[in-house]
């Protein structure tokens, strides 16, 4: 079967924007509002050296912060179970969130292959300041801008090298 690569992370960090950019089509719905409910979306990605299945995890429930929290862990757990590589997306603009730390702890215990993607780094000059917060998560880290395209070449290489 194809290797599975799962995008996980808090609502509104840019998972779907990144998914659309990696698959080069607009399948996944992106939204300014946090916690738009939707099912996970799968798409095959043919890279330079590897073909893999990319999963945009969704299904986050708005209104209750508790439910969002539960849903993030359900999402993380579900994606983890089947994934060969987990792309843990965080928001460089908002900085490290307590939920990021919780998910990070969970992922460290899983022993799975994980990469942190610091998204919304819209240019190379922002890289150092925006990334600084996230090294503490303890995973290899890459800065990207899903909406502007910054760092996508390095990201594609990072994914295919990990598979
Ligand atoms: P998701 O909930 O994690 O799937 O996040 P979305 O992909 O729906 O994006 C949430 C919001 O963040 C949208 O308004 C996007 O336009 C915005 N966004 C996503 N990626 C970037 C980025 O790289 N830079 C900036 N500035 N905004 C972004
Ligand atoms: Mg989304």
List keywords for this structure.
GTPase Der, binds magnesium ion, about 35% helix, alpha/beta, binds guanosine-5'-diphosphate
The CATH class turns out to be Alpha Beta
> Which structural class do you get from the secondary structure elements?
alpha/beta
What ligands can be seen in this structure?
Answer: guanosine-5'-diphosphate, magnesium ion
Total strands: 6
Which stretches are low in confidence, meaning pLDDT under 50 for 5 or more residues running? none
Instruction: Assign the CATH superfamily.
Output: P-loop containing nucleotide triphosphate hydrolases
Distance between the termini: 13 Å
The total domain count is 1
Taking all Cα atoms into account, the compactness measure Rg is: 14 Å
Round the mean pLDDT to the nearest integer and report it: 86
Protein name: GTPase Der
Subunit structure: Associates with the 50S ribosomal subunit.
Family: Belongs to the TRAFAC class TrmE-Era-EngA-EngB-Septin-like GTPase superfamily. EngA (Der) GTPase family.
Function: GTPase that plays an essential role in the late steps of ribosome biogenesis.
